[in-house]
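B., you asked whether I could sanity-check this one before it goes into the benchmark set. Here's the sequence:
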Amino acid sequence: MSGRTLIRGGLVITASDEIHADVLIEDGRVAALAAAGTPAAEAWTAERTIDATGKYVIPGGVDAHTHMELPFGGTFASDTFETGTRAAAWGGTTTIVDFAVQSVGHTLREGLDAWHAKAEGNCAIDYGFHMIVSDVNQDTLKEMDLLVQEGVTSFKQFMAYPGVFYSDDGQILRAMQRSAENGGLIMMHAENGIAIDVLVEQALARGETDPRYHGEVRKALLEAEATHRAIKLAQVAGAPLYVVHVSAMEAVAELARARDEGLNVFGETCPQYLFLSTDNLAEPDFEGSKYVCSTPLRPKEHQAKLWQGLRTNDLQVVSTDHCPFCFVGQKELGRGDFSKIPNGLPGVENRMDLLHQAVVDGHISRRRWIEIACATPARMFGMYPKKGTIAPGADADIVIYDPHAEQVMSAETHHMNVDYSAYEGKRTTGRVETVLSRGEPVITEREYTGHAGHGVYTPRSTCQYLN
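And here's what the prediction gave me:
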């Protein structure tokens, strides 16, 4: 019985199945599943038994897009790896993939080592890294091969932020060609940053300085144009492409067209684009700054197309792009100049609950919830079936989820290290009750029982989602 946990009486939901089953956990992994009430299940014994009657038993969420401690705009994202991973656990997420940053003039290795130093010994849940490539040169391209071999198998490039993270089309093509050879996956921030900078300059010259203009200058057409260009460059390179934080219906249309042509092109969206809109950016008294992120929030009519994309699998993943900055002292850096507002908002704790609300509201099915939040991100980034499912041999990253509990999202009660909630006052149905990470309880009946240092670095294989 040593090291055994038994979860009894719940509805086990994975991307492919829903079954009333008991789950036996041994040595941090799922040992077996058996239909509830069968002789096999009844014979099991364990030192810890969790009663999941009336609850869902789901895989821990995999959030493949977070930015803990990210330096941006003269400040840092307010969640550390310690506070951010604890908040993730509270929200039913048991694995994050964060972004290590290569600074221009430095090597990929230097950036990766810096992020390892930030995370090691501080995380409540398991973590991996993508690599932001800001400086493409012959040495960088060789380093990409080495990183893939050691489990950093995805590389993010930016068509936005000239002078910071920006890569031109030639640099993007070279990196895509390299990833076509080494099995890596290019993740693209698809916005035409050169054109956006012109529109920013013109808006500020007209005295248009409020947060809402952030959304107006970062036009949906410039997201669509960049998405189209990224797809064509990937096609030339013969490489797969993953477009991050898709917000505009015109960009979804570009992805859908590429996928109809049979290309290995994938899209991610985020809860903020599904639940928030330019109405939030336009909130008075600088409140709109809380919602400044890039790609920006769009008018509400875009939401229906994003939900449709998730249902038709033209969008495959929902991640958070969790990048929190406090309203006081950080977002306020942009008073009088929207271009100085740090880009990003908090969400790592809210994703699983918001997507369950989408199930309640009829946007997606229960299995699709698990697919877009757990299974597909794990497959996309080379962690399946260790992560993202409940099956024999998988890590026992498991959430006991109460589908009937109601909650009100609020900065008063969340665990993210930020002074506001992007979803303040939103009522949702469904709540995390208990969270296991590799069989160890991190949240126990709504109490934090985890600790910094439990989470370990998780090397990844290459993308398991290719056609």
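One thing to flag: Residues 220-237 form the longest helix (18 residues). Otherwise nothing jumped out at me.
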